[in-house]
TrEMBL record:
PROSITE patterns, A to Z: RHOGAP
Leading EC class: hydrolase
Domain Rho-GAP stretches: 569-765
GO biological process per UniProt: phosphatidylinositol dephosphorylation; signal transduction
Official protein name in the record: phosphoinositide 5-phosphatase
Species of provenance: Oikopleura dioica
Amino acid sequence: MRKIRRKIINSGTSKSDSYSKAIGTDSPGIERIRPSRAPPGQPISEESSSEPADDRQLLDYYLTKRKSEYSSPCDVNLLAGSFNVNGKEPKEALDHWLLRQNETPDIIVIGIQELQLDADAYFSEYVNAKESEKYQKCQESWKTSVMLALQKYNRPFQLIVDERLVGMYIMIFCSERIKPAISKVDTANVGCGLMGTFGNKGACSVSLKIHETSFCFVTSHLAAHQNAIKKRNQDYESIRHRTVFRERLRILDHERVFWLGDLNYRLDIPNDDVRFICQGDDISSLLPADQLHAEMNAGKIFKGFHEAPITFKPTYKFDSGTNNYDSSPKNRIPAYTDRILWLTKETDSVECLSYSSHPSITISDHKPISACFRVRTEQINKQIYYSVYKEVNSWLDKHENELIPQVAVSSKAIDFGKLKFLERATANIQLQNTGKTPAQFQIIDSKVFSPDRDVYEAFNSNIGLSIDPNKGILPPDSGDASICTISFDLNINKEVVSKFNFGVKQGGNYVNPLDDLILILKLRNGPDHYITLSGDWTYSAFGMPFIALTHSFFKDVSISSLEYPATCLVLNQLVKAECSSSNSPSEQNLHPPAFYVLLNHIVNHGFMERQLFQINGDPDEVRAIIDTIDAEEVVGNLESLPGSVASVAEVLLLFLNSNPFPIIPYSHFELCTDLVDDHNLCKSMIEKLDLRSQNNFQYLIMFLKEVLKHGKINGCTSEFLAGLFSRCILRPQITLKNREKADLEKRKSVQFVRQFLNEDESSLI
């Protein structure tokens, strides 16, 4: 017999876990909603069930089937606006963008991109107070301007949540009428710029409920440039996979999703033709050349999303302060970079009333856009709900043991094929309910399996594997609805590549991490199914410790030709062996060949490159550079690398940050960060390092100082470079879960590196 336990819900929100931040922090002058919380699928009330998630999921399934008995539709009016402000201050009134004459919205969602353009914005929270003040000032100025416009409505609006990541900023306001219906507010952000993680590109997202309907609002800024379609698609997938809210909710788990921002998709049509068409009023001939529509129609991105018909002219790129398309030497092709899309799980639940651009606002090189929606939400009759709840719960208690599910699994052995660093591998299986009862499933790691446990945490891999969905319920006898495609996505990025290089010890041998992972597809009240994984790992210099890349075992050999288990054995033995001063390698072997080649390429070609280390490399070029380094037998003999300076710069960052060990050994972290205010003591700490660490540190610092000499052209500052390179130079072995303490450690690492970037070059020698 399942027991129902009850508890009183606190009306305040708690701080979120490491996946996202709740809205508990007050901003001066802004009142925030602190909504009541209730378990999934249950209306807000003084009492709520605290049943295990496993029970709750099945209960929700049956409650949803009877939803029409206890719920009624309630429409809300929503205004969504997006604006790439190009780092400009809001010197114009925003009324034309945000005010509507005919109908006052209940919810207003504002997404801003390029709030701050200077490179220091990436690390403002980790540097001095002056930079942090600048970071906050531009945010507050736009928030104030938006609120001034909203004050002109005939009803007051309240900011319920905002979230920022570098230049991306999302604000959500609500009217007093709808305020009591909003709950479960949570935020998350994902960077997918440089190295796939930096916040110069990415998304800020908000999850909330209006009545009993879940909403997700996303504002994003995807990769730029005409031909970067593949990178934009990758950014979308990265945001979709990596955005995780409280209760492990992802973007597409919500019933209503609104995605707005500078998606950066362009028009594949000659520049002169676009400009000629834009001189008239009929722009319909532009739309077949729109990259976003082409990618959506091909099923590559935004599956199931909708966009209202576009009736306005391209919103990018303009000469700032005018309505004239770009007249600079770059002469950009006008394009529909700024978009608003939506996704709903129920037919006819979202109606787009208008979709517009606002050319009268000329602050930026983009024009703001907006869309008005009428959105259906579900309102709960609590009395009827609890009556249905008791009936369903009682029925489950009596019949649970009779609900024996049966499923067919298309494959229980998944082979990802050839695996490479930074090359995503995917595989799918199909799960079909072949029985007469709902089949509730969950995929777990066999290592956490216990026959005494009924409930498990969501699958969480430490080798870059994601499973979507990793749990759910398949209805019986429902045609396509009884079939579920489960996607296994393996992304061997800079965070996990070293685990594939080192392998996992199994008995007396080392094996591929996939060989060490066995998954269990658990069926509630049904038999378990075991799923094995495999893949052929191609060794990479990325994720290799420097001590290995300068060792004789790896000399004059193509890294990609190495094999398990011999390489694993050598790597693990090298790491265990301490390097004393007496057995330090000779001078010529101190720098890994790949390190030398990457730095040398930028020295020869990149110091005068604008926005050095600030823009994404081309994905195909990045792939080619990585493959060249891994395939070359004598990397040090490479005279040049394929691709642009931006691509080589990104690969350098990937190489340094994939190293499982920082340049300054972990054992010196606390000693170094305790001395960040004293330059001479910082310098003395470097002199105490082993010879290899000393030379690699000085080699990198001297390179960065040369970059700074050309800072007026390449846009780099000491604050920016210290923030960008501090992690690969100095970091703790264990990242603290406490955000404030972790930020303090990061700040000290940045300050330590800055001590050397601001000193005389002669003092390094």
